[in-house]
Design a protein that fits this description.
The complex is a heterodimer of chains A (159) and B (159).
Chain A (H helix, E strand, L loop, with lengths): L1 H37 L7 H22 L15 H36 L11 H29 L1
Helix pairs in contact in A: 1-2, 1-4, 2-4, 3-4
Chain B lengths: L2 H18 L3 H16 L2 H16 L2 H19 L1 H13 L5 H17 L2 H18 L4 H14 L7
Helix pairs in contact in B: 1-2, 2-3, 4-7, 6-7, 6-8, 7-8
The chains are: A mainly alpha (159), B mainly alpha (159).
Chain lengths: 159, 159
Amino acid sequence: MNALSSVARDLSRFMYVIAGTALAGSMFLTVADVILRQFTVPIVGTYELVGLLGAVVVGFAIPQTSRLQGHVIMDFVTSKLSQSWQRPFHVLTRILAIGTFAIIAWNLWGLGNDLKTSGEVTLTLQLPFYPVAYGIALCCIVECLVLFVDMVEKSEEEK
Amino acid sequence: MSIATIGFLVILLLFVFFLLGLEIGFSMALAGFIGFAAIVNVDAAMNLVAKDIFSVLSSYGFTVIAMFVFMGQVGASGGVARSLYDSAYRFIGHIPGGLALGTVVAGTAFKAICGSSPATAATFATIAVPEMDRYGYDKRLSCGTVATVGTLGSLYRRA
């Protein structure tokens, strides 16, 4: 379990760095485009590049956000329950979340295959969409792993 | 079963997910998926979940939220927010709820300029909530104030 936990931690941290780099990149790109626009030499394709980087930012930040418990939850009911009652609720919600992300990952991978087969690209820069779809699908798989590790670790803590 | 009944049941299910302690975003995705699968079919819901997530994440309009959160974090970590709130406290600290009033005015002006309610809420959540916490404001008041300022800003017409 420790090995799985460290794999989940390292992977989510690595993805978090990618998300941060993409966020900083999209910021610099937007600023540079705004400045260069004043000199009538805008950066071509900023609009679509920032859109794709936005997907990378959100997708790749999901696992680490889960690890840091950064997602918004309503705990005013479950926090009032005793520890023995909180445990099954926690397991149930983790299973539901793992199921949701497994469905999303599976279908995003399929969407990536479709986008690759059809050769769909962005309008200006002709960048393919499929690597982003595959990337977000991988993030969802890592998110499943993070949620599973969280579920097992919480159960072991309470024993 | 009519569509209205399914819709009502799915909203009920959504609230059950919220109360169980499932993350708000995951709950909405799962309830939406179940609702669409019940109304059309599971295959259609599977296709929709991938296409919807990919199009929303790679949408240019939504990248502003991540950028505004980043801006808020830079302001909060760089000490700008702290200085602003210290200064505001000297002017309006003697009024009960003065900082909350100040946050409402600042948030409304910010929304009128930036034009996005979620971006305003995200920015002020990172800037205003920790500062109001520092001055001993109740978490419910500070979070409630920040959650509503973005909507209030819509009263101003953008130029």
